[in-house]
Amino acid sequence: MESIPEMNSSNSENTSFNNISTATMTTTTTTISAATSSSPSSSTTPSRYENQKRRDWNTFGQYLKNHRPPLSLSRCSGAHVLEFLRYLDQFGKTKVHTPICPFYGHPNPPAPCPCPLRQAWGSLDALIGRLRAAFEENGGKPEANPFGARAVRLYLREVRDLQSKARGISYEKKKRKRPPQQQIQAPPPPPVFSISAVISLERKKRLWKMADNAKYSWIKRSYAISLAYN
């Protein structure tokens, strides 16, 4: 009779352990599923460039709607892109000095001046690059891309040169200096012996040999003479 409570107590312990294990597994499964569901959303988050490109494309579309008369994208040309760029100048924040301004060509003017504010060349160049890509992403043909027209490229080049002179800033890309390559020193050439030098060397060898023989023969004669007198 006393064993029954022990069995009941062990059953209750097993039941509580099973409940704890089930709760732990449920929590772990919920955590893994939440992490799995959140990973695709983080990978599909558009980049800063994509967000800016979308905003620029929407701004250009709104400009076409407000145009008089309204323009469709299929009728848009390089001339309309130039109108859009000039329209954006009213929202510019870059001071572009005129030739009659005393600060013309000064990169850091010491005082304010009444020269107009314009869009910086770098901003316009990046804007055209994003709109050019957005045009093709939205079904436009590369050969009909108005943002890649020759007139647009010439206008950007003109703006770059004008602002470079007016602001005293060079927009030329600096060339990266390559590290100096270590010159491999070639081994010195082997010494060149002339025929006369070889002959003189052979002659010296013969003379040295004759001198050695003469020296030893003199010693032999001296030894024989000493033996004869003894």
Task: Report on the architecture of this protein.
The protein has 230 residues and is mainly α. The protein has a domain at 48-167. It has helices at residues 3-43, 48-66, 78-88, 121-137, 150-167, 195-229, and strands at residues 94-95, 117-118. The protein has a two-stranded antiparallel ribbon. Helix 2 packs across helix 4 (121-137). The longest helix has 41 residues, at 3-43.
Q: Can you lay out the helices and strands and say which pair or pack?
A:
Blueprint lengths: L2 H41 L4 H19 L11 H11 L5 E2 L21 E2 L2 H17 L12 H18 L27 H35 L1
Antiparallel strand pairs: 1-2
Helix pairs in contact: 2-4, 3-5, 4-5
Which features characterize this protein?
230 residues; mainly alpha; 2 strands; transcription
Neighbour order of strands in the largest sheet: 1-2
**SS element count, helices:** 6
Q: What structural class is derived from the secondary structure elements? A: mainly alpha
Approximate shape:
elongated
What is the H/E string? HHHEEHHH
- DSSP E strands, number: 2
First-last Cα distance: 142 Å
- Determine the fraction of residues in helical runs and give it as a percent range: 55-70%
Strand content: under 5%
Rg value: 47 Å
Instruction: Point out poorly predicted stretches.
Output: 1-21, 23-42
Mean pLDDT: 76
Keywords: Developmental protein, DNA-binding, Nucleus, Transcription, Transcription regulation
GO molecular function, one term: DNA binding
GO cellular component, one term: nucleus
Main location: nucleus
